[in-house]
Specification:
With 158 residues, this protein is α/β, with parallel strands linked by helices. Helices cover 37% and strands 14% of the residues. Helix 2 crosses helix 3.
């Protein structure tokens, strides 16, 4: 994972990726934030974006978060995802209490706003159009997704 190795970032390992339970994931993120020796910057992809929003809605530790980069939040209200991820079916739609950017793909918009655009509005964060889905990579992608790192560096500025 280039960002982790190059920048000394910490990966928060979550429980059971095959049957992710929101409560378990929330507790693990809370633990990770509490264990951090200084303020944190959250980088989340996919379901992790919804985790950050749900955590921020309930945690008393949000002041420890400097910023969040949220990449490709899925549309959890699709029938398939509602069935597969029942503990995640309630989408948090409140403004995040810290600086954030939501990155999404234009090809996922179906006649209106994409899921990423909707979440950006809900969470009070700017939406960055990453173009086609093939152009969004994650920090673990070989090469480390330099566009994402540039967004993260911009977020970390005071």
């Amino acid at each position: 994972m280039p960002w982790v190795l190059d920048r000394g970032f910490t990966v928060v390992e979550q429980h059971d990726w095959l049957r992710p339970l929101r409560g378990d994931w929330l507790m693990r993120l809370e633990e990770a934030v509490l264990e951090a020796p200084e303020e944190v910057v959250l980088v989340a992809h996919g379901l992790g974006c919804h985790l950050v929003a749900a955590w921020a809605a309930h945690s008393q530790q949000t002041a420890r978060v400097r910023a969040a980069l949220l990449v490709s939040p899925p549309h959890l209200q699709t029938p398939a995802l509602k069935q597969a991820l029942p503990s995640w079916s309630s989408v948090v739609r409140q403004r995040l209490p810290f600086k954030a950017v939501v990155v999404g793909c234009e090809e996922f918009a179906q006649g209106g706003l994409s899921s990423a655009q909707e979440r950006a509005l809900d969470w009070g964060a700017p939406w960055v159009n990453a173009g086609l889905a093939a152009h969004i990579q994650t920090p673990s992608t070989p090469g480390g997704w330099p566009q994402g790192l540039a967004l993260l560096n911009e977020l970390m500025k005071d």
